[in-house]
Write a structure and sequence with these properties.
Layout lengths: L1 H25 L4 E3 L4 E3 L3 E2 L1 E4 L1 H8 L7 E6 L7 E6 L3 E2 L5 E3 L3 H10 L1 H4 L4 E6 L5 E7 L6 E3 L4 E4 L12
Parallel strand pairs: 7-12
Antiparallel strand pairs: 1-2, 3-11, 4-9, 5-6, 5-8, 6-10, 9-10, 11-12
Length: 167
Amino acid sequence: MKKLESHFKKYVELKIVLILLIFMTATTFAFEIPGLNIKIPGFRYGSLKRDKETTQAFETYIILPDHKYYINGLGNIPYAIIGIHENYTLRKGLWKEVDLTTQLLRSWVSRMDMIYGYPPYGSQILDDSGNRVGVWYSSKQWTTVIVEEDNVIAVLAPEPPGFRGGK
């Protein structure tokens, strides 16, 4: 009986290791499990890169013509504004697409420093290869950028003010 328990324990341990390896691989690459016709999606992560020129573009109310703009936040002052290059698609989520005008951008930029208690700045949104896919403007300096197939990206919205030390 103890021999059977020992084999069962090794079998369970092997299954756990296999599941962990599949999960770790799935977060890096997309792969297919042969014979099961199951594709496990891979996750590739992009990043934000703080950029003075992007900050200056937002603060001088320049709207990039080849970008779609989105906001996130409550009320009439966004927590963040992003512009996604027309070659990419933003995955549906908490972002609201806006028809950005110079007047609207001026209004938001002039009031956004009141949200978190420190001034916002611009960043480039980069894919997993370091290519610029968009722009970011917020007092929050971090987010998660996920690069999916077919030039689809997901940009997580910043946390609301008051969470983790914001005003």
